[in-house]
């Protein structure tokens, strides 16, 4: 089981502002701030940003992919809208992904440094 994850960001202040908006749609808030890191979560910091000012932008073909669970379709949609509003690029609009599962509803974004972040929920049969 994973306790927490961390990603590298080139500008901690900019990334912290971005993720405050985006992760807020999934019920996470900024819980910890250090000079070189910010931690977000629901109860404890489970999603960390680590400052790496000299890092290059993540390549589009990189292996990084982080998927966060959303409480429902509206949260996935809100995650995607907030991310685009804050400067992310789309890496897959919100929608069903039947190639994974017939109830798999997700959206994919590339954050300000090119990290690929996904929000997913599993729709009920009534949705």
Describe it for me?
- The chain has 127 residues and is of the alpha/beta class.
- Helix content is 20%, strand content 37%.
- The protein has a single domain, classed as 2,3-Dihydroxybiphenyl 1,2-Dioxygenase, domain 1.
- The chain is globular.
- The model has no long low-confidence stretch (mean pLDDT 94).
What is the string of helix and strand elements? EHEEEEHEEE
- Please give the count of helices: 2
* Helix coverage percent: 10-25%
Number of discrete domains: 1
Q: Tell me the Rg in angstroms.
A: 14 Å
Provide mean pLDDT, rounded: 94
CATH topology: 2,3-Dihydroxybiphenyl 1,2-Dioxygenase, domain 1
Q: β content, as a range?
A: 35-45%
Query: What is the CATH domain class?
Result: Alpha Beta
- What characteristic shape results from the CA principal axes? globular
Number of strands: 8
Sheet bearing the most strands, described?
4 strands, mixed
Oligomer: single chain
Structural class: alpha/beta
CATH architectural type: Roll
- Largest sheet, order of strands side by side? 1-4-3-2
Cα distance spanning the termini: 29 Å
Write the layout of secondary structure elements.
Layout: E1 5-9, H1 12-24, E2 29-34, E3 37-41, E4 47-51, E5 66-69, H2 73-85, E6 89-96, E7 104-110, E8 116-122
Parallel strand pairs: 1-4, 5-8
Antiparallel strand pairs: 2-3, 3-4, 6-7, 7-8
Key terms for this structure?
2 helices, four-stranded mixed β-sheet, alpha/beta, 2,3-Dihydroxybiphenyl 1,2-Dioxygenase, domain 1, 8 strands
